[in-house]
TrEMBL record:
Keywords: Coiled coil
Coiled coil segments of this chain: 122-149
PANTHER family assigned to the protein according to its UniProt record, in alphabetical order: COILED-COIL DOMAIN-CONTAINING PROTEIN 151, OUTER DYNEIN ARM-DOCKING COMPLEX SUBUNIT 3
Coiled coil found in the keyword field: yes
InterPro entries xrefs: ODAD3
This protein's name: Uncharacterized protein
Organism (species): Cryptolaemus montrouzieri
Lineage: Eukaryota, Metazoa, Ecdysozoa, Arthropoda, Hexapoda
Length: 484
């Protein structure tokens, strides 16, 4: 800003062009126009940001609806369709009421268990019937033996009795072997069923648990890194703001004290001015050089320090004059409060994410027992989508950086062109009348400066205007040199 100030005392001595219209008030008016341009640009950026936020909120709602729909489809694919289950069990009212909200796999296992229990009861009844039949046969045989004993004196002498005893023993042995074979067969059938389930789901469960553990760990690590970076950035901004606030308060207090001291000295000087005036004057007296007192030297040094401090603050805050320093600090305070509120909101979002992570861990434990073959495909598609999302985020970040650099460069070019235009407006050129500034009492006649276009179309007209002025000055300069 100071390098381009062609109206400073040093630059005026170089080019020799002065005018009574180049007052501080005119400069302030010009800089106020530039500030209005900056405020308008910030308002437009804020409006664009709000529109983008609303659009992103709408897209977020649509994504939430799609997630709910897809989650229902996934739930039906993983746990089974409950409506189809109720339709299947419509003929069995008791089973429908008992198992309509359960998973199909659990319902099948429960039906198998009921079938197994009923089959076991049937086996028990058949065994009891066999026992009763055997007991009936034994009783009939005993009845026949007793009848034979009544009929014959020595029943053991009959060969049929010996053969019947041998056949009865063999029948008992065959029955025992049959029961043992049935028990062994049932045991081996259960073992085979368990081994089939183990062969189908064991590897899938282990792979899924491993993938879920890695994904949850990566998610927690990334969340921790983001939270740590945000906390460090917030601490740095707080420390910088505190340091700047202390320096500003200290400088303002020193300035206030210096102003009060100066005001007191001016008041004392105004009261004692009559005593300092001479009653008679001598026209032949020469110039008298009054030595500066220590208080005056100290006052000048204090004033120079105040001006130096204010210039440093003006350069650090990038404002045009000293009056804009306090509003700039006020704006920074508003930004600090906004960032503080945003940090609190980020902490709340972090707590929500932790709760969601705990809920996801619980759901992972629940889904470990309800794994299907399509889960691996879903995991692979999920990883591909996450990779594509990261690529799109990186491209978006790069595009935003390029756009930011271009916008900064365009803003600097526009400001430089506007400053050049403001400096050359007072010169008169053929066909272009000089701009007339209003007087001290013509506040109503003040015209606001033209606003720059955001797309850069107005910069072209300013550039052509400056080229015409430069050509005009060169021609005039060469004409003056030709005269001499």
């Amino acid at each position: 800003m100071n390098k381009l100030n062609m109206l400073s005392a040093r630059k005026v001595k170089l080019h020799g062009m002065t005018s009574a219209k180049w007052t501080t008030k005119d400069k302030i008016t010009q800089y106020k126009g530039l500030i209005n341009l900056y405020l308008r640009d910030s308002a437009i950026l804020k409006t664009d940001t709000n529109v983008t936020k609303r659009r992103q909120a709408k897209e977020l709602k649509q994504l939430q609806k799609q997630i709910e729909t897809n989650r229902g489809v996934l739930d039906n694919a993983v746990r089974g369709d409950k409506q189809q289950l109720r339709n299947t069990l419509a003929e069995h009212r008791e089973m429908q009421l008992a198992y309509q909200n359960h998973q199909p796999r659990k319902v099948i296992d429960a039906i198998h268990q009921i079938n197994f229990n009923k089959r076991k009861e049937l086996d028990k009844l058949e065994f009891r019937m066999k026992q009763k039949s055997d007991k009936l046969i034994d009783l009939k045989l005993e009845l026949a033996v007793l009848e034979d004993r009544l009929k014959y004196v020595n029943p053991n002498d009959f060969p049929i009795e010996k053969q019947s005893a041998i056949v009865t023993g063999k029948v008992q042995d065959a029955i025992l072997k049959k029961e043992a074979a049935l028990a062994i067969r049932q045991t081996f059938i259960q073992i085979i069923d368990i081994m089939k389930k183990d062969a189908l789901y064991f590897d899938a469960i282990l792979a899924t648990m491993k993938g879920d553990a890695e994904a949850q760990g990566a998610c927690m690590i990334n969340a921790t890194k983001l939270g740590q970076l945000a906390t460090e950035y917030l601490d740095d901004r707080r420390n910088e703001y505190k340091t700047l606030e202390k320096a500003v308060k200290r400088d303002m207090l020193a300035r206030k004290q210096d102003l009060m001291t100066m005001q007191k000295k001016i008041t004392n000087f105004a009261t004692n001015i009559k005593q300092l005036l001479r009653r008679d004057s001598d026209l032949n007296l020469g110039l008298i050089t009054i030595e500066r007192s220590d208080s005056e030297i100290e006052l000048r040094e204090s004033f120079a320090k105040i001006v130096e401090t204010l210039n440093a603050l003006k350069n650090s805050t990038l404002v045009s004059n000293f009056d804009q320093i306090y509003p700039c600090f006020q704006t920074q305070l508003d930004h600090f409060e906004r960032l503080t509120a945003q940090a609190v909101k980020c902490e709340e979002n972090r707590d929500i994410l932790l709760k969601k992570a705990n809920h996801a861990e619980v759901m992972r434990d629940v889904m470990n027992n309800s794994m299907v073959d399509t889960t691996f495909q879903y995991k692979s598609e999920k990883k591909e989508l996450l990779a594509q999302t990261d690529i799109q985020k990186e491209r978006r970040r790069h595009a935003l950086e390029v756009l930011k650099n271009k916008s900064d460069l365009l803003a600097k070019v526009r400001i430089s062109l506007r400053q050049l235009q403001q400096m050359v407006k007072i010169f008169k050129m053929d066909g272009i009348p000089p701009e007339v500034y209003p007087g001290a009492g013509d506040e109503d006649a003040i015209v606001k400066p033209e606003e720059d276009e955001i797309d850069g179309t107005n910069n072209i007209s300013i550039t052509h205007y400056l080229i015409k002025l430069i050509k005009f000055f060169l021609i005039k300069y060469f004409r003056i040199c030709g005269k001499f």
